[in-house]
Write a structure and sequence with these properties.
Layout lengths: L3 E18 L4 E14 L4 E7 L11 H16 L7 H11 L4 H19 L3 H4 L7 E3 L2 E3 L4 H13 L5 E5 L5 H15 L4 E5 L6 H14 L3 E3 L7 H10 L3 E4 L6 H9 L5 E4 L1 H4 L2 H14 L2 E4 L6 H11 L28 E2 L2 E3 L12 H7 L5 H8 L1
Helix pairs in contact: 1-2, 1-3, 2-3, 5-6, 6-7, 9-11
The chain binds [(2S)-5-oxo-2,5-dihydrofuran-2-yl]acetic acid and magnesium ion.
Amino acid sequence: MVTIDRIDAAILDIPTIRGHVLAMATMRQQSFVLVHVRFSDGSTGLGEGASIGGLSYGNESPESILSAVRDFIAPCLNGLPADNVNGAILRMEKAVKGNFIARAAVEMALWDGLARRRGLPLADLFGGAVRTSMPVAWTLASGVSSTDIEEAKELIAAARHNIFKLKIGTRNVRDDIAHVTAIRQALGDGIGIRVDVNQAWSMHDARWGTAGLEELGAELVEQPLSASDTAGMAELTASSRIAIMADEALNGPVDAQALACRRAADVFAVKVAQSGGLKRAREVCAIADAAGIGTYAGTMLESGVGTAASLHLFATVDKLQWGSELFAPLLFADEILAEPIRYSDFAVHVPDGPGIGVELDPDKLAHYRRDSRKSSLHALTN
Ligand code: MUC
Ligand code: MG
């Protein structure tokens, strides 16, 4: 029987191509935790966990993810049967509460290892892909309207993106609406405009904001209110023509069920990391589907490793009415994969298997790695 032999993890810090201005933080770099699992037959699996803006987005940081993986998850999984990913998930959920991103990173590496041993794309472990590519939005978040417009025009001309998510919530509502209007007018019809408020609005702001956004033809507002304000989200969903999307409020199937019961969103931003893993993200999609809520493949701004795993999972879901925002590898100043994920024709393409279908570039790994512990570095590159 093949067993889980060793789990290593390391933080990589990679600069972004420009400041990424979100309501709660401005990112100038992203920090990913890469997880490498070695199995007793010599096979390996790769996973990733990323948070956004340190602890300003949620309750996990790169450092907490690293510690959870190394100090708590690895010891409870070592020696378990490698092919029983469901068993490992239960063991992790029993031993480690919360820490969804950390658990998801390890689970990803277990699925990747299993798929590689079987010589299959990871999507096949979830019943097979029903799509080989998906629409991919880009986030405009330079903080300056004219820079965002220039950036969007270049991306449209390159046939890379025709859906844009605008990060708002740092200004007052009136100025935010002026910012979205300027971009909408400059880009014209036929271009999808969505906004992400990252919880920055009060209910009063949201009433004005959603009305203004409806008027200018935006399609969707993501997490306008605090993640804890389910009643407010339900009220907005009932009263707005523009779609209301839950993001930070959605941490796995239990939240999905609660939001669906209260009809507190039109759309779920389903994130593998935030859901607690690929399997639980698939369950979130099933709840959305059963409740008539649309799905959107979200990101925690992962590198190509986490992005590839998400692509495999979202390739298998029946419906993906709002496409994806699996663009993050393009937000970083450098590529850590040996072969980058392909973006063309306004879509992102699912990498071919086995496993997640991508490999790390060992030189990039060595370059961006935060610590210099050679033992882990060796394990991550072999
Ligand atoms: C978020 O809140 O959705 C996703 C895309 C992006 O630019 O930021 C993330 C976080
Ligand atoms: Mg969001």
